[in-house]
Amino acid sequence: MDGTFGKGCHLHLIDGSAFIFRAYHALPPLTRKSDGLPIGAVAGFCNMLQRYVEGNTGPDAPTHVAVIFDHSGKTFRNDLYDQYKANRPPAPEDLRPQFPLTRDATRAFNIACKEVEGFEADDIMATLACQARDAGGRCTIISSDKDLMQLVGGGVEMLDAMKNKRIDRDGVIEKFGVGPERVVDVQALAGDSVDNVPGAPGIGIKTAALLINEYGSLEELLDRAEEIKQPKRRQTLIDKREQIEMSKTLVQLDCNMELDFTIEDLEVLDPDPEVLLAFLAEMEFRTLTKRMADQLGQEAPVIPEASPQAAEVAAPEAVPFDRNAYTCVTSAEELQPWIDQIQQRGWVAVDTETTGLDSMVVDLVGISLCVEPGQACYIPLTHREAAADDLFGSDELAKDQMPLAQALEMLKSVLEDPAIMKIGQNMKYDAKIFARQDIAVAPIDDTMLMSYALNGGKHNHGMDTLSERYLDHTPIPIKPLLGTGKSAITFDKVPVIDAVPYAAEDADITLRLWQLFKPQLHQEKVTTVYETLERPLVPVLTKMEMDGIKVDRDTLSRMSNAFAQKMAGLEDEIYELAGETFNVGSPKQLGEILFGKLELPGGKKGKTGAYATGADILEDLATEHDLPARVLDWRQLSKLKSTYTDALQDHINADTGRVHTSYIQTGANTGRMASSDPNLQNIPVRSEEGRRIREAFIPEEGNVLLSLDYSQIELRILAHIAGIDALKQAFADGIDIHAMTASEMFGVPLDEMTPDIRRQAKGINFGVIYGISGFGLARNLRIPRAEAQGFIDRYFERFPGIRKYMDNTVEFAKEHGYVQTLFGRKIHTPEISAKGPRAGFAKRAAINAPIQGTAADVIRRAMIRMPDAIAHLPARMLLQVHDELLFEVPENAVDDTIATAKSVMENAADPAVHLDVKLIVDAGRGANWAEAH
DNA sequence: GACATCACG
DNA sequence: GACGTACGTGATGTCC
C-alpha cells in the first residue's frame, strides 16, 4: 500500500465512549490488587479491543482504524443550547480515573486514539467517515449509537459489536422510517430525552417519520405546517419552530471539522508486544496478559502478587495542606469561576458555617466549597463587624461580603443540580440549613456515613478523627476561634480573616476523605450498605427532623409542678428518716447516710471510693429501712422532671411549636441510630408515672398519632440467623415466645404456665440476645448465680443452635476483626482478642451486633421506602424509636396509612434477604403518644 | 470533664 | 482459677 486512503481501503472507527460504558457496566467493580485503583472498565475495554483485533480477518478487515473518544468538558452544542445533555448524571466516581487509562490501553494496542476539545466523538467520526467516503473507500463505524445513523450510506456502514450486526441503509430505514439523509430531520422532531434535545413536544419517531416522508424534508414541513390537519400537531409545529430548528442543529453532526491528522495517519499497525504486555501487566490483568502473550508468541511478564498492605500504604494525600492557599470569595464575579469549575467536574465538597449547633434555629454565616484537594474557598455571608469594645457586639454586617441572597441564588443551581454530587461531612446538618433557605440539596455523598459503613466499630466518624487518622492532618480547632464558657462567641463574630482557613479547610478535608473512601467502599464490599442503608436515609431523616413533633407545653408544665410538689414532700420524709438534711441528688452524700450513719448492710464502694447507691442496691435495702424506697421515688420524679417535663419545654421550637430531635445516623456501632437534642428515643414508658409524659406528645388538630412497632424483631432475627427450628415454628404458630421457651426449658405445659416461670424465660431470651452470662442473668433475675448458670446450661441443651451461633460468631470476629448483619453491614470488633474483662465485653458485643444490627437495617429499609409508599397519603413519619415508627395523619387517612406502613415494615427485608420468620408489626392510634403506643 | 444514675429499645 | 460482666444509646446532676 502506498499510504494514501482510497478505493479498496477500509476505515474502522470505534466509538470509544460506548466501549467504556459498556465495559464498565458489564463487569463488577474490579480494583487493581496492589493499590486498589478501580480498573474494571479498563479490563473490559481491553478485552473488547482484544476481541476486536482478533476478529479482524477476512474481507471486512480494516486497513485503517481509530478509537474516537469524547473530550471531557463542554462542546460547541452547549453554546447552542445550555441544556444539552444537562440531565446526564455525572460519570460514576470509580469510572472517572479509568478514562485516561482507556486512552493508554488504546495506544498500547497501537491503535490511533483521537479526541478533540469542544467536539463530541460523533463529530470526529462524521468528519472521518465523510473523508473516507469521498476518497472512494469504505468506512465502518463500530457503535450502536443511533445518532451516528445519519452517516450511513455511500460506503459507510455501522456495526453493532455486541450483536455483531451490520447496519446499512435498510437498517437505518428500519430504525427511523427514513433514509440516513433524513435521520436528522426525524431526530429534530422527535427530540431525545437522554441527550435533552427538546424536539417537538408530543411527536415521537413514528410520527416524525410519517411527517418527513409526507413533506420530504423538515424545512418543507415547517414551511407548510399550516396544512397539517391535526390541530394540536399543527400548533406545535408552528409554535415550536425555533426549538425544532435548534434541535436539528444539535443532532446534526459536523462533517467538516478541522482535524490535525489525516486518515492516512490511522493506518492499521501491529501492536508492539513489549509495550502492550507491559501495559497489561501494569494493570495486573493476569488472564489477559497471558492470553495476549500466547497470541503474540511472547513470554508473559511476571505480575507480582500484591502485598496485603500495599493498598493501605498508597499515599492518600498527594497535595499538602496549605491554609494560605484558600480563597475568600466576596463577590459574584469571584464566585462564578468556582461554579463553572463545579459544573465542569460534576462534584463539590460543601460545608456551612452557622451561629450554633441547632440546625432548626441557627443562621447561616458562610459557605465553603472545595473542588479538588487544596483548592477550596470560603464565602463569608453574614459575619458581623467586630465589636467596638468587648461589651457590645455590633449588629452591623462586616464589609466585603457578597449579599446572602445573591450567593444562595448562584449556588442553588449547583446545589440542586441532579448532575452535580454534593459532598459533605454530616450532610444532613448542611442540608437542613440549606432547606431553610429553600434550597433542596441533592444528590449528596457523606464522608461521615462512608466512614461508618467502612469502619463502624473502629472509631467515631467525626471530621477531626477522620482527618487525623486517614489524612494525617490535624484540622484547625474551633475552640480558639469561638472561646469557651461565658465569653464564647458565635461564628458570625469570628473575623473573616480567621474564618477563611478554618472553614475552607473543612471542605478541603471532606473532599480528600471522599476521594479516599469512595474506592474503599468497593474494596471492603460495603457499597451496598452505603448506597442502600446509609445514603438514602439522609433525606428521610432530614424531613423527619424538620417536621418535628408537636409537644404541649402546658401539659409538661403542669406535670413539672406536680412533680416538684411530690419531691418536696419526699424530701421532708427523707430528711426526717435520715435525721438531717442533705442533697438527696448526691449519691455520695446519700451513701454516707445509708451506709455510714445508718449502718445499713451491703455498702460497697466503687472504684472512686464512693458507696454505690444504684436502683438495684436501694431496692434491696428497701426491706431494711424506709429511706431507700423514698429516695427511689424521689429519684424517679427528679429524673422525670429534669430530663423530661422541664428540659423538653426548652426544646419546643419557637417558630414551629414542635420539638425537632436530631438523629445521629452513626450513633451506634450496630447500625442503630441515636437521637439527641432532645433524645426522643428514651421518653418514659415503663412506669405508669413516666408514661404520662407521652400524653404531651400530640398531633395537630384533626390528626391522630400512629405507632407501628415490630413485634419481637430481635428474637425473630435470632431464630433466623441461628436457624432454631423450634423458635421459628413458635413464631409461625403465633405462640407466646417466652412461654414457649419456659415450656421447653422447664417442662411446663403451655396451659399450666405461671407468670413467674414465664418471666424467667423472658429474662433468658433477652440474655441470649445480649450474649448471655451466668452472672448477668443472675443479677437480672435476682437469683443465685449457680441457678442462673443452670438455666443457661439447660437452654443451650434444648437449643444447641444458639450456642453454635454464639461460638461461630465469636470465631468469625476473631478471624476477620468484624461481624456482619444479614444485609452486609460490618461491625468491627477490635477488642475481640483483648485480654482480661474486655474480652468478655467484646464477645458479648460481637454476639449481639448481628442481631441488633440486622433489626436496625430492617427498619432503616422500611424508613427509606416509606416516603414513596405514603406519598399518596397525607401522612407524615415523625419519629423512629429502634423498632417503632411514629406517624401523624389526618383521621380520615388513618386506616390507609396503617395498612400501607405496616406492609412496608413487614416486608422491609425483602428482596435483599428472605427471612425464615415473618416480621409482624403491631399498630396503635391515639390522641397522644401514650394512647398510640 | 469524669462519674453515677436512669430513661428507652 | 480469677478477672468482672448482660447489648445498644443520651441527658442530667454532683463533685473535683
Give me a quick take on this structure.
Helices cover 47% and strands 11% of the residues.
SS element count, helices: 38
Strand content: 5-15%
* Strand adjacency order, main sheet: 3-2-1-4-5-6
Helix-strand makeup class: alpha/beta
The unreliable regions are 309-317
Give the second-level CATH assignment, the architecture of the largest domain.
3-Layer(aba) Sandwich
Looking at this structure, what is the CATH superfamily of the largest domain? 5'-nuclease
Indicate the topology:
Blueprint: E1 10-15, H1 16-26, H2 40-54, E2 64-68, H3 76-80, H4 99-108, E3 112-114, H5 121-134, E4 138-142, E5 156-160, E6 165-167, H6 169-176, H7 183-190, H8 205-215, H9 218-223, H10 231-239, H11 241-251, H12 273-282, H13 286-296, H14 310-313, E7 327-328, H15 332-345, E8 347-354, E9 364-372, E10 375-380, H16 404-415, E11 421-424, H17 427-435, E12 444-446, H18 447-455, H19 463-471, H20 479-482, H21 496-523, H22 527-534, H23 537-547, E13 549-551, H24 553-578, H25 587-597, H26 615-621, H27 627-650, E14 658-659, E15 662-664, E16 674-676, H28 688-691, E17 697-698, E18 703-710, H29 713-722, H30 725-733, H31 737-746, H32 755-769, H33 774-781, H34 785-798, H35 800-816, E19 818-820, E20 826-828, H36 837-869, E21 876-880, E22 884-890, H37 894-906, E23 921-926, H38 929-932
Parallel strand pairs: 1-2, 1-4, 2-3, 4-5, 7-10, 8-11, 11-12
Antiparallel strand pairs: 5-6, 8-9, 9-10, 13-14, 13-17, 15-16, 18-22, 18-23, 19-20, 21-22
The protein binds a DNA duplex (9 and 16 nucleotides) through α25, α27, β16, α32 and α33.
